[in-house]
Amino acid sequence: PSVSVLTQTEEPSVQFTKANLKTENGTAADAVEDYNGNYKFAHIEEAQVSRAMIKRYFNTMYERAVSDVVIIGAGSAGLSCAYHLGKTRPELKITIIEANVAPGGGAWLGGQLMTPMVVRKPAHRFLEELGVPFEDEGPFVVVKHAALFTSTILSKVLAMPNIVMMNATAVEDLIIREDFQGRQRVSGVVTNWTLVALNHDTQSCMDPNVITAPVIITATGHDGPMGAFSAKRMVSTGLLKELGNMRGLDMNRSEPAIVNGTREVVPGLIMAGMELSEHDGANRMGPTFGGMMGSGIKAAVEAIRIFET
Ligand code: AHZ
């Protein structure tokens, strides 16, 4: 192939030739879709694949180093927030940071590793908006598989041009600065690849990266190896005296408490989902997901309020 096949927009520093690449002579014109044993792919150079990823990924990191909103955690609360905020304010640069390789948090299953997902009314309206089918059981609805909700909302969120998600990336710290009134304000997040973050005890000198944003929304779930991240960091930085600690299960108290309590807990930081139960000492609800959807939407409403004041 000619050099132009290898590099469509730039010249390589080393000139590859047909001889030193030892490639077959092939172009996009050779692509043949044939399922009778003669399927042929368009020819590519291996470096094209690397460059296709590297260029986009690092351009995204460069561009999103300054974001409008960072959402920490892509569980049911974080994704519901991203959907509502991304749709309502398409001009905002929204960056989701998710520690896990697989976004979705606990919302791939219902409860106790069972597949159906229960959503109390009126949160079924959000399922209708997303186009997720359900069975009506009167006070609540049931989605036949939690993954149907999570894959649907993920596909819609990721298709929004203003939303970027970086998964396998952990928030390791918060940027906390004084604002013009001398108040402590959360102004960004400190990030690292999760595999790096998990190895700080065994490897030295693995400094992190930063993203600044006027609004940070934290939805990292209840306490656990990765959970309640910002709430715990607020305690260790003195922004919060102590954790309220999640209380026992009470569905009827818990869901409205989480939705209605979703708010800017310190300037610049909105807390949503089960992380808020650790902050406020609210009950858990167990396997009903309407509270997470409502809390995510309320977090988006709070963010919009901040941008409008
Ligand atoms: O990987 C975490 C998960 O996907 C991610 N996360 C946690 N710490 C992070 C960090 N940086 C980046 N430092 C981080 N990402 O946050 C996501 C949290 O999702 P989740 O499903 O655990 O929380 P949620 O609040 O969205 O939903 C909670 C669902 C629950 S728990 C519960 C109960 O225990 O009673 N009931 C419900 C409905």
Automatic annotation (TrEMBL):
<dbReference type="GO" id="GO:0005506">
    <property type="term" value="F:iron ion binding"/>
</dbReference>
<comment type="function">
    <text>Involved in biosynthesis of the thiamine precursor thiazole. Catalyzes the conversion of NAD and glycine to adenosine diphosphate 5-(2-hydroxyethyl)-4-methylthiazole-2-carboxylic acid (ADT), an adenylated thiazole intermediate. The reaction includes an iron-dependent sulfide transfer from a conserved cysteine residue of the protein to a thiazole intermediate. The enzyme can only undergo a single turnover, which suggests it is a suicide enzyme. May have additional roles in adaptation to various stress conditions and in DNA damage tolerance.</text>
</comment>
<dbReference type="GO" id="GO:0052837">
    <property type="term" value="P:thiazole biosynthetic process"/>
</dbReference>
<comment type="subunit">
    <text>Homooctamer.</text>
</comment>
<keyword id="KW-0963">Cytoplasm</keyword>
<feature type="binding site">
    <location>
        <begin position="284"/>
        <end position="286"/>
    </location>
    <ligand>
        <name>substrate</name>
    </ligand>
</feature>
<dbReference type="GO" id="GO:0005829">
    <property type="term" value="C:cytosol"/>
</dbReference>
<keyword id="KW-0408">Iron</keyword>
<dbReference type="GO" id="GO:0005634">
    <property type="term" value="C:nucleus"/>
</dbReference>
<dbReference type="Pfam" id="PF01946">
    <property type="entry name" value="Thi4"/>
</dbReference>
<feature type="binding site">
    <location>
        <position position="207"/>
    </location>
    <ligand>
        <name>substrate</name>
    </ligand>
</feature>
<feature type="modified residue" description="2,3-didehydroalanine (Cys)">
    <location>
        <position position="205"/>
    </location>
</feature>
<feature type="binding site">
    <location>
        <position position="222"/>
    </location>
    <ligand>
        <name>substrate</name>
    </ligand>
</feature>
<feature type="binding site">
    <location>
        <position position="171"/>
    </location>
    <ligand>
        <name>substrate</name>
    </ligand>
</feature>
<dbReference type="GO" id="GO:0009228">
    <property type="term" value="P:thiamine biosynthetic process"/>
</dbReference>
<protein>
    <recommendedName>
        <fullName>Thiamine thiazole synthase</fullName>
        <ecNumber>2.4.2.60</ecNumber>
    </recommendedName>
</protein>
<dbReference type="InterPro" id="IPR036188">
    <property type="entry name" value="FAD/NAD-bd_sf"/>
</dbReference>
<keyword id="KW-0539">Nucleus</keyword>
<keyword id="KW-0479">Metal-binding</keyword>
<feature type="binding site">
    <location>
        <position position="274"/>
    </location>
    <ligand>
        <name>substrate</name>
    </ligand>
</feature>
<dbReference type="GO" id="GO:0160205">
    <property type="term" value="F:cysteine-dependent adenosine diphosphate thiazole synthase activity"/>
</dbReference>
<feature type="binding site">
    <location>
        <position position="106"/>
    </location>
    <ligand>
        <name>substrate</name>
    </ligand>
</feature>
<feature type="binding site">
    <location>
        <begin position="98"/>
        <end position="99"/>
    </location>
    <ligand>
        <name>substrate</name>
    </ligand>
</feature>
<keyword id="KW-0520">NAD</keyword>
<dbReference type="InterPro" id="IPR002922">
    <property type="entry name" value="Thi4_fam"/>
</dbReference>
<keyword id="KW-0808">Transferase</keyword>
<feature type="binding site">
    <location>
        <position position="77"/>
    </location>
    <ligand>
        <name>substrate</name>
    </ligand>
</feature>
<keyword id="KW-0784">Thiamine biosynthesis</keyword>
<dbReference type="InterPro" id="IPR027495">
    <property type="entry name" value="Sti35"/>
</dbReference>
<comment type="similarity">
    <text>Belongs to the THI4 family.</text>
</comment>
